[in-house]
Amino acid sequence: MTLCQLFLQPDAAYACISELGELGIVQFRDLNPNVNSFQRKFVNEVRRCEEMERKLRFLETEIKKDELPIYDPEDNPDAPKPREMIDLEATFEKLDHELKEINTNADALLRNFNELTELKHNLQMTQGFFDEAQAHPVGVLEDMAGEREIELGGQTTATAGMKLGFITGVIPRERMVTFERMLWRVCRGNVFVKQADIPDLIEDPLTGEKVHKTVFVVFFQGEQLKNRVQKICEGFRANIYPCPENPHERRELAMGVMTRLDDLTVVLSQTQDHRQRVLAATSRNLRTWQIKVKKIKAIYHTMNMFNNDVARKCFIAECWAPVSELDRIQLALRKGSEASGGGTVSSVLNRMITREQPPTHHKLNKFTQGFQNLVDAYGVATYREINPMPFVLITFPFLFAVMFGDAGHGLIVSVFALWMVIKERSLKDKWRTQEVWTIFFGGRYIILLMGLFSIYTGLIYNDVFSKSLNIFGSSWRVKFGDEILNRRDIDTVQLEPTPYNYSGTREYQQMYSGTPYPFGLDPIWQVSENKITFTNSVKMKFAIIIGIIQMGFGVFLSLWNHLHFNHRYAIYLEFLPQIIFLACIFFYLIILIFYKWTHFDGLVSTQAPSLLIQLINMILLSYPTEPESSRTFYSGQRGVQTALIIFAVICIPWMLLGKPIYRIIMNKRRANYSTVTNHTENAEHEIDEQTHENESTKKRGVVLDVDLRDTDTDDILDDDHLHQQHHQTEVEMSEVWVEQGIHTIEYFLGCISHTASYLRLWALSLAHAQLSEVLWQMVLHIGLSTNGYAGSILTFLVFMPWSCLTVFILLLMEGLSAFLHALRLHWVEFQSKFYKGEGYPFIPFSFRLLLDEVPIEG
Amino acid sequence: MEKFAIALIFFTVFWGLIGVVLPFLIPKGPNRRLIQTMLILTSACCWLFWLCFYLHQWNPLFGPLLTTTDARILRELWSTDF
User: Fold this and answer.
1) What pTM was computed for the model?
2) So where does this one cross the membrane (chain B) (predicted)?
3) Which of A101, A149, A182, B55 would you call most buried, defined as having the most Cβ atoms within 10 angstroms of its Cβ?
4) Using 50, 70 and 90 to split pLDDT, how confident is the model at A294?
């Protein structure tokens, strides 16, 4: 990783950045951190981009409203040139305007249409009223608009003084009853209301919803009542329509309304078609435009980070780039310069020396990305330190499997993960808003490995949904006779573990063949009462063994780190005491475990040493003779153990004092050369400043990468991102003592506590096995133990709760639990031995990363 | 030759092939080192796991405790010969 300076011509800058964005391997630094975002150079362009994005969002909502499909572009559209941006803006403006116009027109037309529909119904219904009224002449009806006498069917029946006016209108059905009552009360019963329901659903002109409506006619006499009726109609928001009493006029009006309705329908459908066409055309290009606008915006954001050198008329950019990719970057710059018209001066890339810590970059693919995320969640690796990911790749699923250990459950998990992996392409963009799914999908390779290892450990634990497989034939046989097995006062018998006749009598029966079951746990243990006692022993021992080996491996990785950073002193002062301590006590414990496994059998079981007690006695330097399991069990044990303890104890002050004393010596040496170092310091200081003021950079030719070998890396591994003025020659001594004290205590106490912590491998596997067995015994067994047809039906019914509980409790809950514990084991117990994790990640300026971000759904 | 040693040799050779021989046969590519690491670690972990369970059962300190019913069933099911 090297810090580079780019000098870009203003015309070529845009094209060059576009090329670099496609490449996606440089991380730009902000050279204007103190500048407000509103005062940056390209703020107008960014604003224009945001305006374009807003218009595109509007278009997208309109397209979604009509449920048109949006086509995803097959290929990646390039970032458009600056001139294209103006064209795009114009296009968007036009589309935006057009669509808004169509919308307003459509709304107005629709409202008109609805009103006319109501009027039509109105006319139809009132036609019915007046026809009825013909049969019973009620009186002379007056139109409220005019005051003429109307002939009802040719008859003029003028009853004295009775001149009725009427109002017709349409009201929602649910308000009709209250409307009538209100009219009755207010007009003191002096009005006559007739109503008829409109059978179809009508779209209300104001609200746009479809409701049931009723047509009503209110007959009244006099002005006062007319006003009151009008006010009540307004209050109930009934739509009043004029209605001529003359049947001829009515018919004419009705026909007029019909024709207008027909016209409007045609116009409306045409408007809709037009809108569809516009939106369809847009939908084809929408995604491409969105990508283009995003790219333009990203480029201008990046260009805002540059330093504008007015004197030389060029842009200066600083970026981090991997050394191996410098050629590709040069190529991209050349392409950009040529594309923008081939100026006389092409863009220049210049490497810079810096004392800053570069970002950490790991080359990953879709398989390793998941595991790297697990490691990075704890801390991003310090620049150039060893990345634990390749080891975590296998040990994490393995430790998970030790805790999960069931071949049946492992099979289900593997199949699920396999489905996700095989259907990767199609599932990639589905359900992107469901966070739980994206988590599972992102970790599909992790889950696959976890499942596969679980199948293996499940077979070794001989546990398939809590039942054992007998593939090779058990090593145990029951050789008791009927006289023992048929006795009523005996509940249990224990098989003889010694495979040879130790007593010399005839009563001895060999029940154990002498050869263990070749692959995994013998199937007889599943049916025995003391299975847990037996498996506890082996699981605990394995947990300790794998824990100590993993911690030892971690300490060796720290050696690798020391070698890489050329910290010779750290090898002798940190690595050696650490590994010697670990070996003396804990590797010795592993040797004892293997010794006990191979040298003690059923005959001498009472004398078999208790390893825990032996370890405690070793540390306490006490060697009792009682009880038998605490006695020494090999000759010379006392001497060997005492020697080991002495070695181990020596390591503590070795590590505590070694490094600080070394530092004191180094400081003294540096103090002697202080005058010389002062000169070189000042020179470097000037060079640093010059680098930033760009005065002599062009003369600098080939610039060497940061040479970490002969510098004090504690300064480089500093978290400070700002430019340092000078490197420190003096480190505060008290700090060093305190730091080293903390590290020493942390390591030595950690050795013991972490070793015990690995016993969670045993604990969780026990819990899982027991849960699985309970589920089988209490749930599925009910169905399997019933006989006959009832049994088959019961099994069918019982399978559902059994499988649901298996999935939710055993797979999901236990799986999550084992995942968490395995992760903790890696983060704390494994990585604390060598991992610093104080880096910051390399986030390149890449269009691909930009476009992968989930768009925020409006 | 002890029967005990047959399984030991078989599995050691099996995981040895996977963990020691196979890494040399991985073709050159960007993922060569990664695959080698994976193979070595997998075979080491799996072999160790198998070995611990095998050794633990070799000289058992106590035998399985069976109910008399289960004992009778097993005596019939598995007969009394090894």
Assistant:
1) 0.79
2) 6-26, 38-56
3) B55
4) confident
